[in-house]
Amino acid sequence: MGDSSKQEVILISDFSKKNDDEREPPQVKILCFDLTYYNQTTQFLLCCAGVFVLYLIYGYLQELIFTLDGFKPYGWFLTLIQFAYYIVFSVVERRIENKNQPRRIPLRTYGLLAFLTLGTMGLSNSSLGYLNYPTQVIFKCCKLVPVLIGSILIQKKRHGPLDFLAAIAMCIGLALFTLADSQVSPNFNTVGVAMISSALLCDAAIGNVQERAMRENKAPNNEVVLYSYGIGFVYLLVIMIATGNLFSGLEFCLKHPVETYGYAFLFSLSGYLGIQFVLTLVRTCGAPLAATVTTARKAVTIAISFVFFTKPFTIQYVWSGLIVVLGIYLNVYSKKHKNLTFADIFNRIKRLLGSRSTDRQYLLDV
After folding, report:
1. 3-class DSSP state of 69
2. Rounded distance, CA 94 to CA 105, Å?
3. Interior angle at CA 311, CA 307 and CA 315, nearest 5
4. Which partner for 123 in 48, 177, 179, 199 could form a disulfide, CB atoms 3.0-4.6 Å apart?
5. pLDDT tens, 109-123?
6. Following DSSP, what letter does each residue of 139-173 receive, concatenated?
7. Rounded to an integer, what distance in angstroms lies between the CA atom of residue 133 and that of residue 312?
């Protein structure tokens, strides 16, 4: 065989290998479970099942911990335990994946992320000492409002009219839900509203800072979790030692180890695993569909909260919750129609009203 024939054979084999590589599907992996070779529908259903099961467990255990008599003042201590568990989980994940890579994001950025993470989770956990769990979840559903403002101020992003209409709908629904809660709930307290509102502001900032840092430095998720929660743990530990709340929290939890450390372990584990399923859902199906799934999960969480834990109920919860859902739907719809303007919206409304008036006139003529 001549040299030219050998070169042709090599080129053909290289070309076939290249085609095989191109046909190779992108890797879809959740911790040790490889979903790469399942079809997209199966991947979607498995991710949905993971999100629903894990976050329903997360929400149930979070509310269950706060039903323990005398635990309400120790929301920050629960956050300290949760941070410790998250650090252990992220270290174990990095060891399993053998990814002892050097840190990519600067420590100064992680210092800011840790502060914001502490504010988000600490204030959110502590707010349950003052608010009903459904009210807290409704506030979390309205995270779009501060995120929208944060993306404009931090990342200089531009948003379409549907995003602003979605934010307005969420604000109205949230105001009505909070008003209903203040009238029927004995647990309602303005301190809790201030806490969960501050948590949302931190959440808005952390989302934009994380997105920018991860995009610029190409850092993996487990690195961000490890350093954000690790530094945040140090922050909170120093604060609790200085205020004396650490020892009182330890003393209380040692009296109820199963209801505190045991439930907190399951609570933290379900939250950590839930994050992995949500990120996989975003990567395989896109953010709008992931937002729809997580929103549906929150609606089921509220329903389960009313079923398993006794609390007052009013029909205004339903109407105000539906307004919030409308705002979330508008936000998801806007992601599919990014170029939609106010003029387009008005024209569609005119055409809709025009078609209805035409139909009405036709019925009158008949």
Report:
1. coil
2. 16
3. 85
4. 199
5. 999 989 998 998 899
6. HHHTTHHHHHHHHHHHS-----HHHHHHHHHHHHH
7. 12
Q: Which of 159-173, 185-199, 344-358 has the highest mean pLDDT?
A: 185-199
Q: How far is CA 12 from CA 7, 8, 19, 20, in A?
A: 9, 6, 10, 12
Q: Hey, what's the torsion of the CAs at 45, 50, 55, 61, to 10 degrees?
A: 140
Q: Are 151 and 208 in contact (CB under 8 A)?
A: yes
Question: Do 106 and 135 form a contact (C-beta atoms < 8 A)?
Answer: no
Polymer length in residues for the chain? 366
Q: Read off the DSSP letter of residue 103.
A: P
Residue with tokens 């003029």: 343
pLDDT tens, residue by residue, 57-86: 888 898 889 889 899 889 999 999 999 999
Instruction: Return d(Cα 241, Cα 236) in angstroms, integer.
Output: 9
Q: What are phi and psi of 253, to 5 degrees?
A: -70, -30
> How much is the pTM?
0.68
CA distances from 207 to 155, 187, 250, 284 (A): 11, 30, 32, 20
Report yes or no: 133 and 187 within 8 Å, Cβ to Cβ. no
> Would you say 128 and 75 are in contact if contact means Cβ atoms under 8 Å apart?
yes
Nearest one of 218, 9, 14, 228 to 109, comparing CA atoms: 228
In terms of DSSP H, where are the helices of the chain?
3-23, 40-66, 75-97, 107-127, 133-141, 144-154, 161-184, 190-217, 221-243, 245-255, 257, 263-285, 287-308, 315-336, 342-365
SS3 29: strand
